[in-house]
Protein 1
Amino acid sequence: MRILLLADEESKYYWDFFDKSKLDGIDLIISCGDLAPQYLSFLATYAKVPILYVHGNHDHCYEETPPDGCICIDDDIYVYNGIRIMGLGGSMCYNFSPFQYTEKDMQKRYRRLKRKIKKVGGVDIFIAHSPAYHLNDSEDLPHTGFKVFLDILEEQKPKIYAHGHVHINYGRDFKRESSYNGTKVINAFEKYIIEI
């Protein structure tokens, strides 16, 4: 299965210079947050596959204008062609806007998902907006990762953990790919295609 991951910046390749043949061979599209709802709605018009998303810390406009034709997987498990996908959007709380959470808040969100995880038998892909603590995050509070995400990786052992939030232009420490205890970690900034 080929999955197109998106986050943080609308890709000119898929929007300004769009040709629907560019979506050929893509089996699923997943947004890791902070994308204009109009962008995801545009892709949903042409894609013949589901488009899943979690909220980024700048997605408060989704409350009034959610992306049409897309499926929010925040605080949920979505199963597609046997692949179990868990979503936990948002960032560390730094100014109390929507989709910002304390570490304790995020721990509660994960605990509430455990029954659903057990029901489907585990997690293959973990989708978040933020990185995990000290795993491709930054030192400033808004871009600090969640410690509970490390617990998720250790307990659920997903094949893939995809996030956004840390942009490529933030400096030389940007990592597109890394790994953690056998989980492939992807920063989905702009666009990235994975196979599972």
Protein 2
Amino acid sequence: MDWLGDHAWAAWLGVAAFLGIAELLSLDLVLVMLAVGALGGAVTAAAGGAIVLQLVVAAVVAIGMLAVVRPSLVARLHQGPDLVLGTGKLVGQRATVTERITGLSVGRISLAGETWSAAPYDEHVTIEPGTTVEVFEIRGATAYVHPIPELDS
């Protein structure tokens, strides 16, 4: 028992290592927070703190990590780009008119390497071939588009 009293920091490091390795199996970010608490206990033991102080420091650090650090890490890991599937990914894309589009007749556009039927989003607009348009909506197999104003250089 004298060795453990003299080398409590090593026991805390062993606990921290065990928890760190166990975290690799669970991947839920709880055990690694407890491992950081054990590291706090190891630092306290190395500084010569009593066993009660070591336990208190380890518990406070672990609870603090679980309450403060873990939620932000979990949120960061779960965030990512929204997955847009199907025709929804074409909304907002730019296309080139290949066949005249009017409010009375459906024309054609070249969109994402494919030819689509297209109608004007505003039925009072006529869009000539060669015009760059933006896709506002897709209903069925028809893209509803609006011309993009060209900037004068």
